[in-house]
Design a protein that fits this description.
This protein is of the alpha/beta class. It has eleven helices and twelve strands. Helix 10 crosses helix 11 (291-307). It is globular and about 50 Å long.
């Protein structure tokens, strides 16, 4: 397969390096990472150490590919869709965090959209070098334009876009499955991010401390609000179950600084709109409030405005 990785930062570079073992990969990213990768190749460290030599470009327009893997931050998804629409891409899969990426891609592109989520961890440590911080898996599922996941029984399970994406990942030895209920997974991951990310960022604490002490009750409530909005959106998420999952992830990643804490500490824009912001807005559309998510979104957006990053 010819695969474009749109957004060759931390996650995209890791996946690009892995997929390069079985496919013809083109990274779309920015300099100096792209120029360094062209000169010296892409080095992966951490969980496994290896070198890859995918093609790379800073120009995401006019690209032809069987598949585009979108790994930009959620606030760059609309721009990614605009660039991809100028080329010829067979299918697009988003492996981003947050809610709304698939809708944005579907609004801008004619090809099939595949939703996805991953538990791999990656960090671009320097141009041309990506640290694989945690081995995980990929789950993908077909995305319909109306936002519902595709529950239609597949006559030929190998001949739908999500199954083809999962098979392409597995061909590169990446643990990947196609999940007909991908919306449930996206909302469950959203609950984890809504509980952990803004609180760790604002309180400047590592993940392990979120469910300890004064922030615990608010993390629980943030997750429970996501479950309520999910149910209003037709996705059966249980408040206790998602809070338990968020606590488990916080325990498993106790020493990590969440992506939002890292963004805030580095003075970068965060993904708050696609995490807490979208929960508060969708609650509002359904006629109720998600006050903890609303406040957390306002505080992080307030910091972003003050820091001049939005
Ligand atoms: N890093 C992880 O371990 C991880 C794990 C799971 C999910 N995610 C999710 O994946 C997404 C990406 O995360 P990340 O940590 O890799 O972010 P990142 O900022 O490291 O990477 C995104 C890259 O996209 C590039 N980019 C954006 N728009 C571009 C454009 N128009 N042309 C070329 N390059 C462009 C940016 O320069 C950046 O390098 C986020 O939604 C994140 O929440 C990340
Ligand atoms: C799971 C998670 C909260 C762990 O740090 C991660 O998704 C993050 O940092 O965004």
């Amino acid at each position: 397969m010819r695969i474009v990785i749109f957004g060759a930062g931390s996650l995209g570079s890791l996946l690009g390096a892995l997929l390069d073992s079985a496919h013809d990969v083109v990274l779309v990213g920015r300099d100096p990472h792209v120029s360094t990768t062209r000169e010296r190749g892409l080095r992966v460290t951490g969980v496994d150490s290896f070198e890859a030599s995918p093609a790379s470009t800073t120009d995401g327009t006019g690209l032809d590919a069987d598949l585009a893997v979108v790994t930009v931050k959620s606030y760059d998804t609309a721009a990614a869709a605009r660039d991809l629409a100028t080329g010829d891409v067979g299918a697009v899969v988003s492996l981003q965090n947050g809610l709304g990426n698939e809708e944005t891609l579907a609004a801008g592109l004619e090809c099939p959209i595949v939703a996805g989520t991953t538990t791999h961890g990656a960090m671009l440590s320097e141009p041309g070098v990506v640290e694989w911080t945690g081995r995980g898996a990929v789950a993908v599922g077909n995305w319909r334009v109306d936002g519902a996941s595709d529950h239609t029984p597949q006559v030929d399970a190998t001949d739908d876009p999500a199954s083809r994406v999962a098979a392409a990942f597995r061909a590169a030895s990446i643990d990947a499955e196609s999940d007909p209920d991908i919306r449930h997974r996206l909302w469950a991951k959203l609950a984890v991010n809504a509980a952990i990310n803004p609180i760790t960022a604002l309180a400047r604490i590592r993940n392990g401390r979120v469910f300890e002490g004064p922030t615990a009750a608010y993390a629980e409530r943030a997750a429970a609000e996501v479950a309520r909005v999910a149910r209003a959106d037709g996705v059966g998420l249980d408040a206790d179950a998602v809070a338990a999952e968020a606590r488990a992830v916080a325990r498993r990643t106790a020493d990590n600084r969440s992506s939002m804490l890292q963004d805030l500490a580095a003075g970068r824009r965060t993904e708050i709109d696609a995490i807490s912001g979208v929960v508060a807005e969708r609650a509002d559309e359904h006629g109720f409030e998600a006050p903890v998510n609303g406040l957390l979104a306002a505080l992080v957006r307030g910091w972003e405005a003050g820091a001049g990053v939005r």
